[in-house]
Task: structure prediction
Amino acid sequence: MKEEIRNNVPVFDLKRNYATVKGEIAEALDRVLESQLFILGEEVASFEEEVARYLDVGEAIGCASGTDALLLALMALDVKPGDEVITTPFTFFATASAIVRLGGTPVFCDVDPATYNLDMGQVLSKVTSKTKVVLPVHLFGQMCPLEEIAGPLRERGIAMVEDCAQAFGALRFIESRSQGGKTATTISRAGAVGDVGCFSFFPTKNLGCYGDGGMATVTEKGAPLADRIRSLRVHGGRKTYYHDEVGLNSRLDAMQAAILRVRLRHVEEWNERRRAAADRYRLLLGEAGLLDRVTPPMELAGGRHVYHQYVVRVPRRDALIDFLAEHGVGTRVYYPLNLHLQPCFEFLGYGKGAFPVAETLTDEVLALPMFPEIRPREQERVIEVLAAFFAC
Ligand SMILES: *Cc1c(COP(=O)(O)O)cnc(C)c1O
Result:
């Protein structure tokens, strides 16, 4: 019995994480409670400044969720009925729902089989005279190579909104050659490339709070776009009780901001732990001779993947899920149904076969246990059970 309990590996475990910051969180919450200031205010402003500094962006605007961050971004870019927004069918629902909520049309584009991210080579072929925004998602913590499309989109006057909900801290190293022939490396951070970066602080995200929370980032300090997002999050007004347009009630509350300020101080270390766990999985898969059955996630050269999820591809996926569950190993499938095949998007007119890569992935992907505090012994156990499954 004892052995069995020890062998259980959860898909994630927030309690272990909480134990590492409990004291700091109590102090932060007490500060907010003593102030009795709960909505926006100094706590949120300080968190916004700290994130802006961390991500090296001009403006960071807290809001109520990642979903709202996407909605606010698209509202601020004036997405209206008739406008097309190019995005991926292999993502969480909110990426596309924000477009449809505003009457815009999601135009899906297939994904890259190696990274599961939008296929950058196909994006530009989807552009029409109605394209207003391209909305890439940095899925599972890996940043898309946006440098491949940023220039052409800018030339055509098409905006870019990054869905960074799964990619807090992800980045790419971009090599550029100057006229003198010298190469320089610059860091391109998720959320600092497009017109707006959208983050979620849902509890399980790499930087999570203890409820709902989100943020929109804008590269240039004082940009009109940032001012518009700030106004839209408080009912479209810049002065209380005066409204320039109809906005949302989408504020980040002070308790969540106080929690996030504590957690922001640790997120770098937590992301490094995730990366170390990913390295260990790959090593263990190789040692177990499983690499011909289990395809580990591919890390693009020049990138820093932050492993929000560790998603492998496997044959006989559904049978494997049951086998792992019987042996106490938790897994998840992100995502079991592509967005172009969701009942609520039937009106868009896509059918099965429209995006072969995304559709194949849906049948083969499996997220293994991944969280900063996962123990090497637990990862060994996951691989042991995987090996047992493929041995029979
Ligand atoms: C989590 C997530 C969202 C939505 O964030 P919420 O804070 O839950 O609203 C949007 N896009 C992606 C890719 C996500 O993973």
Q: What stands out?
A: Residues 254-287 form the longest helix (34 residues). Residues 169 and 306 are 7 Å apart (CA to CA). The longest strand covers residues 171-177.
